[in-house]
Amino acid sequence: MSDEMMGGRENLASNVSGVLVVDKPVGLSSHDVVQIIRNGTKIRRAGHTGTLDPRASGVLVVLLGPAVRLSEYVSASEKRYQAVIELGITTDTYDMEGQITRRSPVEITYEEFEEALQGFIGEFEQKPPAYSAIKIKGEKAYEIARRGEEVDLEPRTIQVHELELLDWDPPEAVVDIQCSSGTYVRSLAHDLGEKLGCGATLTGLRRTKNGRFGLRDAVSLRKLQEAFAAGDWYQYLIPAAEALGDWYTVELTVEQVDEVRHGHRVPALEVVEAGKWARAVSQEGELVALVEYDSAANEWQPRKVFFL
Q1: How far apart, in whole angstroms, are the C-alpha atoms of residue 223 and residue 233?
Q2: pTM
Q3: Which of 71, 143, 158, 229 is deepest in the core (most CB within 10 A)?
Q4: Contact 16, 235 (CB under 8 A)
């Protein structure tokens, strides 16, 4: 490939703003995947919207270019997982990465497991695992725990919307979980085992959905790397506006696009909930700004404007 063609691709990449949804394989960290994407796209501004442990696989949403400014909104989206939970084993990390601290006989029936499982639906306080990346005075909790020091993390309010038992083959169970951002499935497995009295640990995890993106939107990392080599990875790029595809949408005229990008308000075409946020898009579907509804003036106020 000539230097001129390479330069052309790099210039094109510098103007890219969008989303790559990757089916992360087991064995790589989320950061590893982001770095592979940075190298393949030649785009330095890239970041994921929700960490998956190296032992976990599934949907990893990576934002590119100006779209990284959507991270806080996409990261807050609900998640869906398929979790493999093994009863009768307790570990210090709540998964099979750690040391086994207890083994117990499993004499749990399907009905008992199902009843205990349903008890975790709703909003409640969850204590994150000591072996997590949460920072304590600038240091990650797992670094402190690995030194043998006690880690006491504050509980967090989470919400579990759905729990469905997909497969029951004791001592193993496969559970479908739909939950809020910030939920630790490892902690959920551990707490479930404590409730049942036999202990439990997470042995497998696959994220099947992150916000509006599911496995059907995801491309395997192998295919993506092949596309990087071929120079046609853009086929997998999803417009930035689709990252918030479940948000209320305000379509702007050509004139309004310019007004919004200069921070000016635009009139609302209908009355919506006071303080509601929306994505403002051009007629071509390009994300222009995030706007907030002012009910007193019946107008949309730009809150975060995107420039390419």
Answers
A1: 9
A2: 0.87
A3: 158
A4: no
Q: Which helix (H) or strand (E) is 219 found in, with range? A: strand 219-220
Does 53 participate in catalysis according to the annotation?
Answer: yes
Catalytic-role residue among 23, 53, 95, 191? 53
The per-residue DSSP string of 50-94 comes to S---TT-EEEEEEEEGGGGGGHHHHHTS-EEEEEEEEETEEESSS
Main-chain phi, psi angles of 2, to 5 degrees: -70, 160
- Please state, in angstroms and as integers, the Cα–Cα distance from residue 29 to each residue in 15, 48, 286, following that order: 27, 11, 31
Helix axes 185-196, 110-118, angle to 10 degrees: 130
184-242 pLDDT, tens digit each:
999 999 999 999 999 999 999 999 999 999 999 999 999 999 999 999 999 999 999 99
Fold observed for domain 3-76+212-240: Alpha-Beta Plaits (3.30.70)
Cis peptide before 239 (omega within 30 of 0): no
Domain layout of the chain by residue ranges: 3-76+212-240, 79-189, 247-305
May I ask the CATH architecture of the domain 247-305? Answer: Roll (2.30)
Residue 270, CB-side half-sphere exposure with 13 Å CA sphere = 7
Q: Which fold has domain 79-189?
A: Pseudouridine synthase (3.30.2350)
